[in-house]
Amino acid sequence: MRALITGVTGFAGSHLADYLLAEQPRVEVFGTYRWRSRTENIEHIMDRIQLVEADLRDYTSIHSTLAEVRPDFIFHLAAQSFVPSSWRSPADTLSTNIEGQTHIFEAIRALELDPVIQIACSSEEYGLVHPDETPIKETNPLRPLSPYVVSKVAQDLLAYQYHQSYGLRAIRTRGFNHTGPRRGEVFVTSNFASQLARIEAGQREPKIKVGNLDAVRDFTDVRDMVRAYWLAVTKATPGEVYNIASGKGITIRELLDRLIALCSVPVEVETDPARLRPSDVAVLVGDNSKFVQATGWQPEIPFDQTLADTLDFWRAKVAREA
Ligand code: GDD
To answer: Measuring CA to CA, which of 46, 167, 195, 282 is 20 to 30 A from 260?
Structure first.
């Protein structure tokens, strides 16, 4: 069996490749990368996966990639995934995410392939959630609060539509926040952990810069998340949408306090106005019962472990760079 991961050099993509290599020996792993992609997340498995150069925005490259690989499973993880960048460059986020996925779908049709394809949708799609709507079910209205989210709603609905129109075996996973080692430095857990690691190393003054600490998010370790993606393509129902969540919410303030508690030096917290968003999603806590029922998935890694591993990842990176 062949699995193609779009965005294999990224955070979730590289962890998914690790999972498939370790736990699914019958699966051959292929991944797309762009000519300028950084490969540090996959250096350790370069000799065990097959890389194909492709750019989501270029239909020709997607068509030839699918013609070459002819995958049984596609994990579509490549995207512009940082919410604040979507306010700075909305059109870029919309075209990369929406057109990119359309290219994959149309290439599948043109080549008459029939893969099971997982679409990385997002809990952010729920956007403005009312207090009586948590934990959030898949049936909750979608009230987008950023251009990024509009792109994810479009990806989600396109997958639904291609399933209805052409029988495409798309499975939509609405992933709630996931984090862990290799997470890009712009995202909250990694950003706080990298600042703390640099403070510990004496590279910056003992002041950590933060944005909105009142937001509530539902975190899953990335290693549990990618296991869920595999269960999604092997056990869930094509055409359906599933929340992948821990079901537990924590404030970003609590996340920060737990990270600071792991740090070996005292730090001051300072709000950086540039980190505040035009509209932040206030509360995201998911109801995962539909996915658990379909697949038996349960998150296994405690969040304190995830935080400790993330901080250790940054400590090692900072030490390497010094
Ligand atoms: N990035 C960042 N940096 N976020 C901060 C900071 C900071 O210094 N301080 C507070 N926050 C708050 C944000 O305002 C937000 O409420 C929360 O921390 C999480 O921010 P991110 O880590 O940037 O993630 P996100 O929730 O916006 O989006 C992530 O999760 C989505 C799934 O729910 C991304 O991975 C998306 O791609 C994904 O769809």
So the answer is: 282
The tokens for 63 are: 């068509």
What pTM was computed for the model?
0.98
If asked whether residues 261 and 229 sit together in one domain, one would say no
Co-location of 72 and 127 in the same domain? yes
User: 24 C-alpha to center of ligand 1: Å?
Assistant: 31
Q: How many CB atoms are closer than 10 A to CB 147?
A: 21
Q: Give the number of the atom of ligand 1 that is nearest the alpha carbon of residue 212.
A: 10
- Domain CATH for 68: 3.40.50.720
CB 106 near ligand 1, within 6 Å: no
Residues 189, 131 share a domain: no
Taking CA atoms, 230 is separated from 23, 266, 321, in Å, by 10, 41, 34
| Ligand 1 close to Cβ of residue 163 (< 6 A) | no
Checking DSSP bridges between strand 50-53 and strand 73-76, what pairing results, if any?
A: unpaired
Ligand 1 contacts CB of residue 275 (under 6 A): yes
Looking from the CA of residue 276, the nearest atom of ligand 1 is 14
